Amino acid sequence: MYELFILGQLMDHPMTGYQLRKALTSVVGQELTISFGALYPLMDKLAAADLLMMDFKRTPSKRPQKLATITDRGQKRFRTLVLAPVALNKQTQLTFQMKVNFLHLLTMAERVMVLTDFQQFISGQLTRLASQATHIHHNPNMLAADIQDALLVNDLQRVRAQAQYDWVTRRLDHMEREKVIIN
Asked: What is the pLDDT of residue 7?
């Protein structure tokens, strides 16, 4: 997942590790960002795999910075990752957020594919949350106060998922209208 983000960010222009981490924070939030202790070894691993090149960038201070540039092989790897189906796991939501961040790098058909996959994931999430609410509501092993709290959290999750579903649907509708205008 972080490999996708690093390669995608480098598709636009070379960046330092500090710039990559700052960009990631702006996309996923402070609580989900990667530490420098994990970022730099990952960048070194990607460089060893010839997916990016590391050079030193001169700075006004005396300390040079490492600047990462994506290679042709890295560009191909990015396309493979961004177009690959997303596995259902605890990182699914985050992976889709990253993919949405790179829609500008995709063709219209690829954008539709990524957003349609995201929409299907969210639809399944909404179905699971509705089923979970029913289960919580009828759970004889929970206290009434715990049921109410669990239902509040479930409602919050459903509202968030519904907002995402609505956003993706609007984006797909907008892209469909653009396609009609172009044709």
From this structure: 95
Q: Average pLDDT over the chain, rounded to whole?
A: 90
b/e burial code for range 132-168 (CB count within 10 A of at least 16 → b): bbeebeeeeeeeeeeeeebeeebeebbeebeebbeeb
| Ramachandran sector of residue 50 (left: φ over 0; alpha: ψ -120 to 50; beta: rest) | left
pLDDT for position 57? 73
- Residue written as tokens 């983000």? 5
Considering only CA atoms, which of 10, 1, 9 is closest in space to residue 53? 10
When computed from its CA atoms, the radius of gyration of the chain, rounded to whole angstroms, is 20
**Closest to 115 in 3D by CA, of 170, 178, 179, 162:** 170
Mean pLDDT along residues 147-156 = 94
Measured CA to CA, the distance from residue 24 to residue 42 in angstroms comes to 14
- Map residue 9 onto helix, strand or coil: helix
